[in-house]
Amino acid sequence: TAGIMVTDISDHFPVFLISGIEEPLSNDTRYSYRQVNEANKEKFVESLTDTCWDNVLEETDTEVAYDKFLTIFTLLFDESFPMKTAKIGKHPRTKPWLTRGLLKSIKKKNKLYWKYVKNPTPLTEST
């Protein structure tokens, strides 16, 4: 199936293609993330400050020094900002700045746009 998507996201309508190749649906309704907040940032900075960097600074081979630095840095980062897993809800949350009034306005704008696309007038065709 192919077609043209009528939308106002651009001055050109996107073209789409849906192929007959079916991929198995994933039952995984979880996603991973890192919790970045002020407390974790402070913990990370404190860990970096408290770490002894002598084995990195005393290394004469820059490649080895970088590998040692990256190993320590990654370990501290992972400890300060551990990976967390969350379940995806049935209805994804909308963006917090989209109030009910804005959502209503967006819906009305899209409805008017569809009306314009389906019934163009000579005045609107020239723009």
Which descriptors would you attach to this protein?
about 130 residues, alpha+beta, two-stranded antiparallel sheet, two-stranded antiparallel ribbon, about 15% strand, elongated
Task: Describe the SSE topology.
Blueprint: E1 2-4, E2 15-17, E3 30-34, H1 38-50, H2 54-57, H3 62-80, E4 83-87, H4 100-118, H5 122-125
Antiparallel strand pairs: 1-2, 3-4
N to C succession of SSEs: EEEHHHEHH
**Tally of contiguous helical segments:** 5
How many strand elements?
A: 4
Amino-to-carboxy terminus distance? 31 Å
- How confident is the prediction overall: mean pLDDT? 82
Residue share in helix: 40-55%
Q: Report on the biggest sheet.
A: 2 strands, antiparallel
Q: Which residues sit in consecutive blocks of at least 5 with pLDDT less than 50? A: none
Instruction: Tell me the structural class.
Output: alpha+beta
Instruction: Indicate the overall shape.
Output: elongated
- Widest sheet: strand ordering: 1-2
Task: Tell me the Rg in angstroms.
Answer: 26 Å
| Portion in strands | 5-15%
Please summarize what this structure is:
This protein is of the alpha+beta class and about 130 residues long. Helix content is about 45%, strand content about 15%.
Mind explaining what this structure looks like?
- This protein is of the alpha+beta class.
- 46% of the residues lie in helices and 13% in strands.
- The protein has five helices and four strands.
- It has helices spanning 38-50, 54-57, 62-80, 100-118, 122-125; strands at 2-4, 15-17, 30-34, 83-87.
- The strands form two sheets. It has a two-stranded antiparallel sheet with strand order 1-2. A two-stranded antiparallel ribbon has the order 3-4.
- α1 packs antiparallel against α3.
- The radius of gyration is 26 Å and the shape is elongated.
